[in-house]
Write a structure and sequence with these properties.
Methyltransferase, Cobalt-precorrin-4 Transmethylase, Domain 2, five-stranded parallel beta sheet, 7 helices, elongated
Length: 226
């Protein structure tokens, strides 16, 4: 029988936020894969490190993480082929994914290449909007609030169109888009009550009023809740 492909959510950064199921699978699965920079382990492997026993077959999916994403398809094609070889041999494979595997998750790129050929299961993880709200002590939604999840890479017009009908919003992947987003939110009268959370749950996390933020990394979110 073929093995099962597992997408394992490992949360936003704090290793104690992994679920009991994720920790069990990290110990049981014979093969683990994860997205990684061209050198080093990368964030996903680092978060899970305490729960990965010695002796696993490990498959780093090497990516440059350039904004152009021009090497993404090739990297995931190669990784999917290697993972498929293990699955064909009957070995289960776990793909580690920061946050939740199906919420902007890197696991999606592996799953779409292998789904239909192999059994797939997903272990949900704590995603960054939930982690950021917890660190900032800011509710994401109350009662019947509609919450918009918006990538910072969208145009100003699209972000405005998504924000206007929503009672609350989370803007993801802030990084180099910070000045533009601050200007847009100020123009909409939303800047004063917006909060920025960078690297939520990690030792170097920062929580601050968005108006006071001068720089933010890619691993940042903005919480907007008038």
């Amino acid at each position: 029988m073929s093995g099962t492909l597992w997408g394992i959510g490992i949360g936003p950064g704090d290793p104690e936020l992994l679920t009991a199921k994720a920790i069990r699978l990290l110990g049981e699965l014979p093969v683990l894969a994860w997205p990684a920079p061209l050198e080093g382990d990368g964030m996903a492997r680092s978060i899970a490190a305490a729960y990965v026993p010695v002796g696993k077959v490990e498959i780093p999916i090497r990516l440059s993480f350039r904004p152009e994403r021009d090497d993404t398809d090739e990297a995931y094609d190669k990784a999917a082929q290697t993972i498929a070889e293990h699955l064909d041999a009957g070995r289960d494979v776990g793909v580690l994914c920061e946050g939740d595997p199906l919420f902007f998750g890197s696991f999606i790129y592996v799953m779409t290449r292998l789904q239909g050929r192999f059994a797939v299961q997903v272990v949900p993880g704590v995603s960054s909007p939930m982690a950021a709200a917890a660190m900032a002590l800011r509710p994401l939604s109350v009662l019947d609030d509609a919450v918009a999840i918006i990538p910072a890479t969208r145009s100003d017009d699209m972000i405005r169109a998504l924000l206007e009908p929503a009672e609350a919003a989370v803007i993801m992947k802030v990084g180099r888009h910070l000045p533009r987003l601050k200007g847009l939110l100020a123009d909409m009268g939303l800047l004063a009550n917006a909060v920025a959370v960078e690297r939520a749950t990690l030792p170097d996390q920062r929580v601050m009023a968005l108006a006071e933020a001068e720089t933010l990394s890619y691993f940042s979110v903005i919480l907007v809740h008038p």
